[in-house]
């Protein structure tokens, strides 16, 4: 009897649980699953209205207040509409450039637009918020996804014209020592020169380094001599003729020295296009997060380059490079500088830098004195550094190779807005 009870108690004991093996990578979250692709990135438009975006204080310490719905508002209204449904990302001060790089890696159709705003006296306008800006691409308004006023470190390629006349070249030489004073230790500089051909004086180095100081000293040139042409007599360019044509083999071919009655002077060589292209190729390899500036000190004359202006401008617009310049020489004279913008047929281009700056969102300064040239370095560096940075997601295909126009409007009276008028899309910066 006791044995039967013990046997019944033993059979009522349950079996031990069977070991189970966890699915592979079940403890790893937000990874790419085979066949399902990458998880969808969050859309700022779908964010809950109770989320409070990061705020940046406006000029004077004023901070926009938050309404009951969580959206920003100001004395003029909340600034949101059917296009700008939610406020853009506004990183805390000092983190704007990091946000730009992070967003570039996340969205392949993200477009960055640096914007300069000046009043009618030429002074920079500060204290604007995202509500004051409207961005249009190909005529269609875009919702801002990023807004920051943090200064960006600069990558500057200096292009120095050595084909200037002797008097103008001397002024440029005397001003080169002031370049470093306009820059910060966070900036980097490369130097290029051109006369009859372009060459690189140094690659990118620290803006406050002794290497840059030494290179700038070595780039000083004597300039081009201007003499009165002699087209007759024993001192003429062609004193030996054959059958009415110049037979001196040392002169330029193609009868450029003329015949016995006249002498055609050889054309001046100013390879500005080639120099800008060489500097732009070096700038295009700088990492994202740095503002790419191509700074030219020249009279703007162009003749003899292998690259055309149209090709170089397209390269600049594709690689997000802005051209700034200090005009010297004839192009800096009042009246004459305005006329030099127009190209006369069969003549060299007297000032092509205006076209470059307008096509890339840069600016020009016209200076004739050493003091004026030195101050222009400071003004342009300040303008390039203290810009509003706007970001949006393009509604166009990610990469189609077509030019896209950009228009930036500011809801303020009597202001001048400078931004790039368009760009060519590229996947160079995305990983």
Give the C-level CATH assignment of the domain at 154-219 and 269-385: Alpha Beta
Strand fraction: 15-25%
How many alpha or pi helices? Answer: 9
Order of helices and strands: HEEHEEEEEHEEHEEHEHEHHEHEEEE
Which ranges are low-confidence, i.e. pLDDT below 50, for 5 or more consecutive residues?
28-39, 47-76, 251-260
Summarize the structure.
The protein has helices spanning 2-11, 96-106, 166-175, 210-218, 272-283, 309-318, 336-339, 353-360, 370-385, and strands at 65-66, 72-73, 110-119, 133-137, 140-142, 144-148, 154-161, 188-195, 197-206, 241-242, 245-246, 291-298, 321-327, 364-366, 388-393, 404-410, 415-418, 422-423. It is α+β, with helices and mostly antiparallel strands and 431 residues long.
Structural overview:
The chain has nine helices and 18 strands. It is of the alpha+beta class. Among the domains are: 98 residues; 183 residues, 3-Layer(aba) Sandwich (Rossmann fold), CATH 3.40.50.410.
Topology:
Elements (H helix, E strand, L loop, with lengths): L1 H10 L53 E2 L5 E2 L22 H11 L3 E10 L13 E5 L2 E3 L1 E5 L5 E8 L4 H10 L12 E8 L1 E10 L3 H9 L22 E2 L2 E2 L25 H12 L7 E8 L10 H10 L2 E7 L8 H4 L13 H8 L3 E3 L3 H16 L2 E6 L10 E7 L4 E4 L3 E2 L8
Parallel strand pairs: 7-8, 7-12, 12-13, 13-14
Antiparallel strand pairs: 1-2, 3-15, 3-17, 4-5, 4-16, 6-15, 8-9, 10-11, 16-18
Helix pairs in contact: 3-9, 5-6
Index terms:
431 residues; alpha+beta; Rossmann fold; six-stranded mixed β-sheet; four-stranded antiparallel β-sheet; 9 helices; 18 strands; globular
């Amino acid at each position: 009897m006791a044995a039967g009870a013990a046997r019944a108690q033993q059979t009522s004991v349950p079996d031990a649980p069977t070991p189970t093996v966890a699915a592979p990578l079940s403890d790893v979250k937000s990874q790419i699953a085979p066949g399902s692709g990458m998880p969808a990135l969050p859309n700022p438009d779908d964010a809950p209205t109770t989320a409070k975006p990061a705020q940046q204080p406006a000029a004077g310490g004023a901070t926009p207040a938050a309404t009951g719905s969580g959206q920003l508002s100001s004395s003029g209204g909340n600034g949101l509409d059917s296009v700008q449904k939610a406020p853009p990302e506004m990183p805390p001060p000092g983190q704007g450039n990091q946000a730009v790089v992070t967003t570039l890696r996340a969205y392949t159709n993200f477009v960055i637009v640096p914007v300069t705003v000046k009043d009618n006296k030429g002074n920079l306008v500060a204290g604007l918020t995202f509500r004051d800006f409207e961005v249009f691409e190909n005529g269609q308004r875009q919702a801002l996804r990023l807004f920051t006023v943090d200064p960006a470190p600069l990558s500057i390629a200096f292009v120095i014209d050595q084909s200037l006349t002797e008097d103008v070249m001397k002024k440029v030489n005397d001003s080169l020592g002031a370049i470093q004073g306009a820059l910060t230790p966070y900036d980097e500089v490369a130097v290029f020169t051109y006369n009859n051909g372009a060459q690189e004086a140094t690659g990118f180095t620290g803006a406050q380094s002794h290497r840059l100081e030494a290179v700038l000293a070595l780039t000083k040139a004597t300039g081009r001599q201007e003499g009165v042409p002699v087209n007759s007599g024993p001192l003429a360019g062609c004193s030996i003729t054959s059958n009415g044509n110049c037979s001196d083999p040392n002169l330029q071919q193609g009868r450029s020295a003329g015949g016995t009655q006249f002498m055609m002077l050889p054309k001046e060589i100013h390879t500005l296009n080639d120099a800008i292209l060489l500097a732009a190729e070096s700038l295009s390899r700088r990492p994202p997060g740095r503002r790419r500036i191509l700074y030219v000190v020249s009279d703007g004359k162009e003749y003899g380059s292998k690259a055309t202006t149209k090709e170089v401008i397209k390269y600049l617009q594709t690689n997000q490079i802005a051209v700034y310049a200090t005009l010297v020489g004839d192009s800096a004279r009042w009246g004459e500088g305005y006329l030099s913008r127009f190209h006369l047929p069969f003549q060299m281009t007297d000032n092509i830098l205006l076209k470059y700056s307008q096509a890339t969102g840069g600016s020009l300064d016209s200076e004739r004195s050493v003091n004026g040239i030195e101050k222009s370095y400071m003004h342009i560096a300040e303008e390039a550094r203290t810009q509003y940075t706007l970001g949006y997601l393009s509604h166009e295909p990610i990469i189609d190779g077509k030019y896209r126009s950009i228009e930036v409007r500011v809801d303020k009276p009597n202001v001048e807005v400078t931004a790039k008028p368009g760009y060519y899309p590229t996947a160079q910066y995305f990983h």
